[in-house]
Amino acid sequence: MGCGAARMIPDSSLAQLGGHTAGILGLATFLVDGEVRVASASHDKTVRIWRTTGECLIHVLEGHGDFLTAICAYESGGAARVASGSADRTVRIWDPKEGKCLHILRGHEYFIKVMTAFKDASTGDALIASSALDGTIRTWRGGDGSPVAVIKVHAQPPGHELSSIRRQSLVAPPRKRGSMVGGAQGGARKSQYKSKVAAKPPPGGEKPAFAIAAFDGATRLVTGHADGTMKTWANASGDAAAADWQGHEAPVFALCVFAGAAGERCASGSGDFSIKVWDLAARAALVTIPGAHDEKVCCLACFAPPDGSPAKLVSGSGDMQLALWDAEATPELEPPEKGKPDDDEEAGPRSKAINRLEGHTTVVSSLGAYLSNGKQRVASAAWDGKVRLWDPFDDGPGVC
Q: Which intervals of the chain are annotated as region Disordered (predicted)?
Protein backbone atom coordinates (compact mmCIF):
# COMPACT_ATOMS: atom_id res chain seq x y z
CA MET A 1 0.00 0.00 0.00
CA GLY A 2 1.66 3.23 -1.15
CA CYS A 3 0.41 5.78 1.36
CA GLY A 4 3.05 8.48 1.07
CA ALA A 5 3.84 8.79 4.78
CA ALA A 6 2.30 5.36 5.36
CA ARG A 7 4.21 2.06 5.33
CA MET A 8 3.55 -1.60 5.92
CA ILE A 9 4.68 -2.66 9.38
CA PRO A 10 5.54 -6.03 10.93
CA ASP A 11 2.54 -6.21 13.21
CA SER A 12 -1.15 -6.99 12.89
CA SER A 13 -2.27 -3.64 11.50
CA LEU A 14 -3.00 -3.21 7.79
CA ALA A 15 -1.20 0.11 7.45
CA GLN A 16 0.44 2.85 9.47
CA LEU A 17 0.01 6.57 8.78
CA GLY A 18 2.88 8.65 10.09
CA GLY A 19 3.67 12.34 10.06
CA HIS A 20 2.66 13.80 13.39
CA THR A 21 5.64 14.89 15.47
CA ALA A 22 3.94 14.23 18.82
CA GLY A 23 1.27 12.01 20.32
CA ILE A 24 -2.26 11.87 18.94
CA LEU A 25 -5.14 12.44 21.37
CA GLY A 26 -8.15 12.29 19.05
CA LEU A 27 -9.31 10.59 15.86
CA ALA A 28 -12.48 10.67 13.77
CA THR A 29 -13.63 8.81 10.64
CA PHE A 30 -16.06 10.28 8.10
CA LEU A 31 -16.96 10.43 4.41
CA VAL A 32 -16.08 13.04 1.78
CA ASP A 33 -17.81 12.50 -1.56
CA GLY A 34 -18.38 8.88 -0.59
CA GLU A 35 -14.73 8.21 0.27
CA VAL A 36 -13.48 7.42 3.78
CA ARG A 37 -11.36 10.02 5.52
CA VAL A 38 -9.57 9.97 8.88
CA ALA A 39 -8.86 13.09 10.92
CA SER A 40 -6.22 12.99 13.67
CA ALA A 41 -5.65 15.64 16.35
CA SER A 42 -2.20 15.83 17.88
CA HIS A 43 -0.08 17.29 20.63
CA ASP A 44 1.92 18.91 17.79
CA LYS A 45 -0.98 21.45 17.44
CA THR A 46 -2.12 20.14 14.05
CA VAL A 47 -5.01 18.21 12.55
CA ARG A 48 -4.14 15.86 9.72
CA ILE A 49 -6.68 14.62 7.17
CA TRP A 50 -5.96 11.23 5.60
CA ARG A 51 -7.29 8.92 2.94
CA THR A 52 -7.26 5.24 3.85
CA THR A 53 -5.93 4.21 0.42
CA GLY A 54 -3.61 5.68 -2.19
CA GLU A 55 -1.60 8.78 -1.34
CA CYS A 56 -2.91 9.11 2.17
CA LEU A 57 -2.07 12.55 3.56
CA ILE A 58 -4.42 15.21 2.19
CA HIS A 59 -4.16 18.21 4.52
CA VAL A 60 -2.25 19.45 7.54
CA LEU A 61 -4.53 21.92 9.35
CA GLU A 62 -2.80 24.54 11.48
CA GLY A 63 -4.11 27.38 13.60
CA HIS A 64 -4.57 26.20 17.18
CA GLY A 65 -2.28 27.91 19.66
CA ASP A 66 -1.71 24.87 21.85
CA PHE A 67 -1.88 21.08 21.74
CA LEU A 68 -5.05 19.42 20.48
CA THR A 69 -7.08 17.27 22.81
CA ALA A 70 -10.20 16.16 20.93
CA ILE A 71 -11.82 15.90 17.51
CA CYS A 72 -15.16 14.90 16.00
CA ALA A 73 -16.67 14.77 12.52
CA TYR A 74 -20.20 15.36 11.25
CA GLU A 75 -22.22 16.51 8.26
CA SER A 76 -23.73 19.97 7.93
CA GLY A 77 -25.70 21.15 4.92
CA GLY A 78 -24.61 18.10 2.97
CA ALA A 79 -20.91 18.79 3.52
CA ALA A 80 -18.40 17.06 5.80
CA ARG A 81 -17.11 19.05 8.74
CA VAL A 82 -14.47 18.41 11.40
CA ALA A 83 -14.38 20.14 14.80
CA SER A 84 -11.21 20.16 16.90
CA GLY A 85 -10.71 21.11 20.55
CA SER A 86 -7.50 22.36 22.09
CA ALA A 87 -5.65 23.39 25.20
CA ASP A 88 -5.91 26.91 23.78
CA ARG A 89 -9.56 26.77 25.00
CA THR A 90 -11.06 27.07 21.52
CA VAL A 91 -13.00 24.83 19.17
CA ARG A 92 -12.28 25.17 15.46
CA ILE A 93 -14.61 24.02 12.68
CA TRP A 94 -12.84 22.91 9.51
CA ASP A 95 -13.80 22.10 5.94
CA PRO A 96 -11.80 18.86 5.55
CA LYS A 97 -12.23 18.80 1.77
CA GLU A 98 -10.71 22.25 1.21
CA GLY A 99 -8.47 22.24 4.28
CA LYS A 100 -9.82 25.54 5.58
CA CYS A 101 -10.82 26.79 9.02
CA LEU A 102 -14.40 28.07 8.87
CA HIS A 103 -15.12 29.14 12.45
CA ILE A 104 -13.33 29.62 15.79
CA LEU A 105 -15.54 29.04 18.83
CA ARG A 106 -14.62 30.73 22.10
CA GLY A 107 -16.13 30.51 25.55
CA HIS A 108 -14.37 27.81 27.54
CA GLU A 109 -12.14 29.08 30.34
CA TYR A 110 -9.82 26.07 30.46
CA PHE A 111 -8.62 23.43 28.07
CA ILE A 112 -11.07 21.21 26.24
CA LYS A 113 -10.89 17.51 27.04
CA VAL A 114 -13.48 15.70 24.93
CA MET A 115 -15.99 16.40 22.16
CA THR A 116 -18.83 14.76 20.29
CA ALA A 117 -21.18 15.69 17.44
CA PHE A 118 -24.83 14.73 17.06
CA LYS A 119 -28.07 15.80 15.39
CA ASP A 120 -30.55 18.05 17.18
CA ALA A 121 -33.70 16.16 18.13
CA SER A 122 -36.08 18.89 17.00
CA THR A 123 -34.42 20.31 13.87
CA GLY A 124 -32.07 17.58 12.68
CA ASP A 125 -29.25 20.15 12.52
CA ALA A 126 -25.74 19.18 13.56
CA LEU A 127 -24.65 20.13 17.07
CA ILE A 128 -21.23 19.94 18.72
CA ALA A 129 -20.72 19.33 22.44
CA SER A 130 -17.36 20.20 24.01
CA SER A 131 -16.41 19.42 27.60
CA ALA A 132 -13.60 21.29 29.35
CA LEU A 133 -11.82 21.36 32.69
CA ASP A 134 -13.65 24.59 33.50
CA GLY A 135 -16.46 22.25 34.58
CA THR A 136 -18.78 23.06 31.66
CA ILE A 137 -20.12 21.40 28.56
CA ARG A 138 -20.85 23.87 25.76
CA THR A 139 -23.06 23.04 22.81
CA TRP A 140 -22.65 24.78 19.47
CA ARG A 141 -24.36 24.73 16.09
CA GLY A 142 -22.26 22.73 13.70
CA GLY A 143 -23.10 24.91 10.72
CA ASP A 144 -22.07 28.38 11.83
CA GLY A 145 -20.50 27.67 15.22
CA SER A 146 -22.98 29.81 17.13
CA PRO A 147 -23.42 28.90 20.82
CA VAL A 148 -26.50 26.98 21.92
CA ALA A 149 -26.12 26.38 25.65
CA VAL A 150 -23.73 26.07 28.57
CA ILE A 151 -24.20 23.06 30.85
CA LYS A 152 -22.57 23.60 34.22
CA VAL A 153 -21.40 20.16 35.23
CA HIS A 154 -19.25 21.30 38.14
CA ALA A 155 -17.06 24.31 38.77
CA GLN A 156 -13.41 23.46 38.14
CA PRO A 157 -10.81 26.15 38.88
CA PRO A 158 -8.14 26.51 36.17
CA GLY A 159 -4.87 24.86 37.13
CA HIS A 160 -6.53 22.11 39.15
CA GLU A 161 -4.43 18.97 39.62
CA LEU A 162 -6.80 16.84 37.51
CA SER A 163 -5.31 18.40 34.40
CA SER A 164 -1.88 16.99 35.22
CA ILE A 165 -3.40 13.67 36.30
CA ARG A 166 -5.13 13.35 32.95
CA ARG A 167 -1.99 14.20 31.02
CA GLN A 168 0.15 11.80 33.06
CA SER A 169 -2.41 9.04 32.68
CA LEU A 170 -2.15 9.22 28.89
CA VAL A 171 1.64 9.14 28.65
CA ALA A 172 2.47 6.83 31.56
CA PRO A 173 3.97 3.46 30.60
CA PRO A 174 1.61 0.48 30.83
CA ARG A 175 1.08 -1.09 34.23
CA LYS A 176 0.17 -4.68 34.89
CA ARG A 177 -3.18 -5.71 36.18
CA GLY A 178 -3.62 -5.24 39.92
CA SER A 179 -5.01 -7.65 42.46
CA MET A 180 -8.69 -8.36 42.90
CA VAL A 181 -10.62 -6.63 45.63
CA GLY A 182 -13.28 -9.31 45.74
CA GLY A 183 -11.89 -12.29 43.87
CA ALA A 184 -15.09 -13.14 41.96
CA GLN A 185 -15.56 -12.71 38.25
CA GLY A 186 -17.33 -9.41 38.59
CA GLY A 187 -15.01 -8.06 41.27
CA ALA A 188 -13.23 -4.75 40.92
CA ARG A 189 -9.51 -4.39 40.39
CA LYS A 190 -7.19 -2.05 42.16
CA SER A 191 -6.16 0.75 39.86
CA GLN A 192 -3.49 3.43 39.89
CA TYR A 193 -6.30 5.95 39.36
CA LYS A 194 -7.88 5.00 42.65
CA SER A 195 -5.07 6.64 44.57
CA LYS A 196 -4.65 9.60 42.23
CA VAL A 197 -8.27 10.64 41.87
CA ALA A 198 -10.79 8.82 44.01
CA ALA A 199 -8.71 8.91 47.19
CA LYS A 200 -8.08 12.65 46.73
CA PRO A 201 -11.32 14.16 45.45
CA PRO A 202 -11.13 17.67 44.03
CA PRO A 203 -12.20 20.44 46.41
CA GLY A 204 -15.95 21.00 46.35
CA GLY A 205 -16.63 17.57 44.82
CA GLU A 206 -16.07 18.63 41.20
CA LYS A 207 -16.57 15.88 38.64
CA PRO A 208 -15.45 17.15 35.21
CA ALA A 209 -16.54 15.10 32.21
CA PHE A 210 -13.68 12.90 31.00
CA ALA A 211 -15.87 11.28 28.31
CA ILE A 212 -18.94 12.33 26.35
CA ALA A 213 -21.30 10.74 23.81
CA ALA A 214 -24.72 11.42 22.29
CA PHE A 215 -27.30 9.70 20.11
CA ASP A 216 -28.23 11.29 16.78
CA GLY A 217 -31.71 12.76 17.00
CA ALA A 218 -31.93 12.06 20.74
CA THR A 219 -32.29 14.51 23.57
CA ARG A 220 -29.71 12.96 25.88
CA LEU A 221 -26.02 13.57 26.39
CA VAL A 222 -24.06 10.93 28.30
CA THR A 223 -20.96 11.87 30.30
CA GLY A 224 -18.34 9.94 32.26
CA HIS A 225 -16.41 11.46 35.14
CA ALA A 226 -13.17 11.29 37.10
CA ASP A 227 -14.77 9.67 40.15
CA GLY A 228 -16.26 6.82 38.09
CA THR A 229 -19.77 8.26 37.94
CA MET A 230 -21.86 8.61 34.79
CA LYS A 231 -24.60 11.10 33.95
CA THR A 232 -27.36 11.40 31.40
CA TRP A 233 -28.54 14.91 30.60
CA ALA A 234 -32.19 15.15 29.62
CA ASN A 235 -31.39 17.57 26.80
CA ALA A 236 -28.50 19.39 25.18
CA SER A 237 -29.29 22.60 27.07
CA GLY A 238 -28.74 21.08 30.50
CA ASP A 239 -31.81 22.77 31.96
CA ALA A 240 -33.29 19.44 33.06
CA ALA A 241 -31.99 17.31 35.91
CA ALA A 242 -29.44 14.64 35.03
CA ALA A 243 -29.47 11.07 36.23
CA ASP A 244 -26.28 10.25 38.13
CA TRP A 245 -24.96 6.83 39.09
CA GLN A 246 -21.74 5.04 39.99
CA GLY A 247 -20.63 3.36 36.79
CA HIS A 248 -17.06 2.33 37.62
CA GLU A 249 -14.54 2.24 40.45
CA ALA A 250 -12.12 4.55 38.63
CA PRO A 251 -12.33 7.37 36.05
CA VAL A 252 -14.56 6.81 33.02
CA PHE A 253 -12.28 7.58 30.09
CA ALA A 254 -14.39 6.32 27.17
CA LEU A 255 -18.02 6.21 26.01
CA CYS A 256 -19.72 5.16 22.80
CA VAL A 257 -23.37 4.70 21.88
CA PHE A 258 -24.96 2.20 19.53
CA ALA A 259 -28.25 0.59 18.60
CA GLY A 260 -28.54 -2.79 20.29
CA ALA A 261 -30.98 -5.55 19.46
CA ALA A 262 -33.36 -4.27 22.14
CA GLY A 263 -32.76 -0.51 21.91
CA GLU A 264 -30.19 2.22 22.47
CA ARG A 265 -27.12 1.23 24.43
CA CYS A 266 -24.06 3.00 25.83
CA ALA A 267 -20.67 1.38 26.44
CA SER A 268 -18.20 2.76 28.98
CA GLY A 269 -14.50 2.08 29.54
CA SER A 270 -12.61 2.88 32.70
CA GLY A 271 -9.38 3.06 34.63
CA ASP A 272 -10.61 0.01 36.53
CA PHE A 273 -9.72 -2.00 33.36
CA SER A 274 -13.36 -2.89 32.67
CA ILE A 275 -15.97 -2.19 29.98
CA LYS A 276 -19.70 -2.06 30.69
CA VAL A 277 -22.70 -1.84 28.37
CA TRP A 278 -25.64 0.08 29.81
CA ASP A 279 -29.37 0.33 29.49
CA LEU A 280 -29.46 4.07 30.11
CA ALA A 281 -33.15 4.23 30.95
CA ALA A 282 -32.72 1.71 33.78
CA ARG A 283 -29.13 2.75 34.57
CA ALA A 284 -28.36 -0.96 34.59
CA ALA A 285 -25.25 -2.72 33.30
CA LEU A 286 -26.37 -5.36 30.79
CA VAL A 287 -22.86 -6.56 29.98
CA THR A 288 -19.76 -6.35 32.18
CA ILE A 289 -16.32 -7.15 30.79
CA PRO A 290 -13.89 -7.33 33.74
CA GLY A 291 -10.22 -7.24 32.87
CA ALA A 292 -10.82 -6.10 29.32
CA HIS A 293 -7.19 -4.95 29.26
CA ASP A 294 -4.09 -5.05 31.44
CA GLU A 295 -4.28 -1.26 31.83
CA LYS A 296 -6.88 1.53 31.66
CA VAL A 297 -9.46 1.47 28.88
CA CYS A 298 -8.83 4.76 27.08
CA CYS A 299 -11.16 4.63 24.07
CA LEU A 300 -14.06 2.73 22.51
CA ALA A 301 -15.70 2.43 19.11
CA CYS A 302 -18.94 0.64 18.22
CA PHE A 303 -20.07 -0.78 14.90
CA ALA A 304 -22.69 -3.02 13.34
CA PRO A 305 -20.87 -5.65 11.22
CA PRO A 306 -21.87 -5.67 7.53
CA ASP A 307 -22.81 -9.36 7.81
CA GLY A 308 -25.70 -8.48 10.14
CA SER A 309 -24.20 -10.12 13.22
CA PRO A 310 -24.64 -8.47 16.66
CA ALA A 311 -23.04 -5.11 17.41
CA LYS A 312 -19.35 -5.12 18.23
CA LEU A 313 -17.10 -2.98 20.42
CA VAL A 314 -13.43 -2.19 19.89
CA SER A 315 -11.43 -0.96 22.87
CA GLY A 316 -8.02 0.68 23.09
CA SER A 317 -5.87 0.75 26.18
CA GLY A 318 -2.77 1.83 28.02
CA ASP A 319 -1.53 -1.72 27.42
CA MET A 320 -1.02 -0.67 23.76
CA GLN A 321 -3.55 -3.20 22.45
CA LEU A 322 -6.91 -3.07 20.70
CA ALA A 323 -9.51 -5.68 21.64
CA LEU A 324 -12.71 -6.75 19.86
CA TRP A 325 -15.86 -7.66 21.83
CA ASP A 326 -19.44 -8.76 21.33
CA ALA A 327 -21.37 -5.73 22.59
CA GLU A 328 -24.31 -7.79 23.80
CA ALA A 329 -22.72 -10.78 25.55
CA THR A 330 -20.48 -11.16 28.59
CA PRO A 331 -17.27 -12.92 27.50
CA GLU A 332 -15.62 -15.88 29.14
CA LEU A 333 -12.52 -15.39 31.27
CA GLU A 334 -9.07 -16.35 30.08
CA PRO A 335 -7.41 -19.09 32.13
CA PRO A 336 -4.75 -17.74 34.52
CA GLU A 337 -1.17 -17.83 33.29
CA LYS A 338 0.71 -20.24 35.50
CA GLY A 339 4.01 -19.17 36.96
CA LYS A 340 3.79 -15.60 35.69
CA PRO A 341 4.37 -12.94 38.40
CA ASP A 342 2.23 -9.82 38.34
CA ASP A 343 3.91 -7.12 40.45
CA ASP A 344 4.02 -9.62 43.32
CA GLU A 345 0.23 -9.57 43.46
CA GLU A 346 -2.33 -12.05 42.23
CA ALA A 347 -3.62 -10.83 38.87
CA GLY A 348 -7.33 -10.26 38.50
CA PRO A 349 -9.32 -12.05 35.81
CA ARG A 350 -8.83 -11.17 32.19
CA SER A 351 -11.73 -11.45 29.77
CA LYS A 352 -11.37 -13.41 26.55
CA ALA A 353 -11.73 -11.07 23.58
CA ILE A 354 -12.85 -12.09 20.11
CA ASN A 355 -9.52 -10.72 18.91
CA ARG A 356 -6.59 -8.68 20.23
CA LEU A 357 -4.54 -6.46 17.94
CA GLU A 358 -0.98 -5.29 18.57
CA GLY A 359 1.17 -2.72 16.81
CA HIS A 360 1.14 0.56 18.73
CA THR A 361 4.11 1.23 20.96
CA THR A 362 2.33 3.30 23.60
CA VAL A 363 -1.14 4.26 24.87
CA VAL A 364 -3.98 3.85 22.35
CA SER A 365 -5.86 7.12 22.72
CA SER A 366 -8.68 7.11 20.14
CA LEU A 367 -10.60 4.83 17.76
CA GLY A 368 -12.94 5.07 14.79
CA ALA A 369 -14.83 2.45 12.75
CA TYR A 370 -15.59 2.55 9.03
CA LEU A 371 -16.38 0.39 6.00
CA SER A 372 -13.93 -0.09 3.13
CA ASN A 373 -15.23 -1.91 0.04
CA GLY A 374 -17.90 -3.50 2.20
CA LYS A 375 -15.38 -4.73 4.77
CA GLN A 376 -15.24 -3.59 8.38
CA ARG A 377 -12.17 -1.58 9.31
CA VAL A 378 -10.98 0.25 12.43
CA ALA A 379 -8.63 3.23 12.69
CA SER A 380 -6.66 3.81 15.87
CA ALA A 381 -4.46 6.63 17.12
CA ALA A 382 -1.87 6.57 19.89
CA TRP A 383 0.69 8.54 21.79
CA ASP A 384 3.32 7.09 19.47
CA GLY A 385 2.10 9.69 16.93
CA LYS A 386 0.79 7.08 14.51
CA VAL A 387 -2.60 6.23 13.01
CA ARG A 388 -3.06 2.56 12.26
CA LEU A 389 -5.71 0.85 10.12
CA TRP A 390 -6.99 -2.62 11.02
CA ASP A 391 -9.20 -5.49 10.06
CA PRO A 392 -10.62 -6.06 13.56
CA PHE A 393 -11.43 -9.71 12.83
CA ASP A 394 -7.96 -10.63 11.54
CA ASP A 395 -4.84 -10.60 13.69
CA GLY A 396 -2.49 -11.22 10.79
CA PRO A 397 -0.80 -8.72 8.44
CA GLY A 398 -2.67 -7.79 5.29
CA VAL A 399 -3.47 -5.03 2.84
CA CYS A 400 -6.27 -2.49 2.80
A: 171-203, 329-355
